[in-house]
Amino acid sequence: MTRFDLSGKKALVTGGAQGLGEGFALALAEAGADVVVSDVQDDRGKESAARLAKVGRRTGFVHHDVTVEDDWKNAVATTIDLLGGLDVLVNNAGSEITGLLAAFDPDDWRRMFDINVVGTGLGIKHAFAAMSPGGPAGAGGVVINVSSVAATIAYPALAGYSASKSAVDRLTRVAARESGQLGYGVRVNCIYPGLVPTEMGNRLAGDMVEIGLGESVEHVVGNVVEQTPSGRLGAVDDMTGAVVFLASDAAAFVNGAGLPVDGGMGM
User: Fold this and answer.
1) pLDDT at 1
2) Are 244 and 28 in contact (CB under 8 A)?
3) Contact assessment for residue 192 and residue 266, using Cβ atoms and an 8 Å cutoff
4) Per the domain annotation, does 182 fall within a domain?
């Protein structure tokens, strides 16, 4: 057994039906954790959980809109019921809407903030309630929030997204302090993924072209690669190791931290 072994851990991954969320769930399962996937996409979420089951871990799917508090109550209760506890929450569900400040759309911003910020805050709230002494899980645990490299750089047409993901960073640090001072026993960290060619990442590149910030998707991607010291886009597998690390005993003294997984783009 290594310090990265997650055997016996029980995890909930939001937005786990596709992209990074599905990758995080699979990586946690491969490291030994039992994992429940939650998402608003029921069919894809069930398919994701079925793939996890092939790893030989206990798993399940629960419908979950992260902006709805009752959905959080149900997702946490379902995870504890299915797995027998909750040790790790990956607050991954998120939304990205590209737009220039000159075309500021308050409804788009409200939707992004509702998912990215309020959803993350509700996740922290219900993780604390479940994992703290006296809670239905009650053995402490780990919350891993998914921010973005956009929280650390100024990139055109991502003002709303950047602001929401910067808020995730601040939520992370305040939550870690509150957990420590109040004796919850829950570590809270976040990661800053770089651009990954998932459905969301590919859509972002296309949106940049549509609003005139790139000649083609290839041009937009090339611009990102030029700004990345590692010289390439990230892959889902590049992101998952950071989540496994933060969930593991190897990160037992890592708390209130933001871990860049961006190939150096945000340095």
Assistant:
1) 57
2) yes
3) yes
4) yes
| Element containing residue 124 per DSSP (H, E) | helix 119-131
Q: Is 3 part of any domain?
A: no
pLDDT for residue 200: 81
Tokens 């057994």 belong to 1
Cα–Cα distances (Å) from 139 to 9, 111, 143, 223, in that order, read 11, 34, 13, 46
Torsion 23-148-157-101 (CA) sign:
positive
59: domain CATH number is: 3.40.50.720
Residue 2 domain flag: no
Q: Which domain holds residue 60?
A: 10-261
Low pLDDT (below 50) residues in the chain? none
Instruction: Establish if 66 belongs to a structural domain.
Output: yes
Which of 155, 161, 184, 192 is an active site residue?
161
155 is catalytic: no
How many domains are there within the chain? Answer: 1
- How many Å apart are CA 179 and CA 64, to the nearest integer? 25
Q: How far apart are the first and last CA of the chain?
A: 34
Other CB atoms within 10 A of residue 216 CB: 12
For position 241, what pLDDT does the model report? Answer: 96
**CA–CA separation, 76 and 78 (whole Å):** 5
Instruction: List, for residues 142-167, the tens digit of each pLDDT value.
Output: 999 999 999 999 999 999 999 999 99
pLDDT digits (tens, 9 = 90+) for 176-199: 999 999 999 999 999 999 999 888
Determine contact, residues 112/161, Cβ cutoff 8 Å. yes
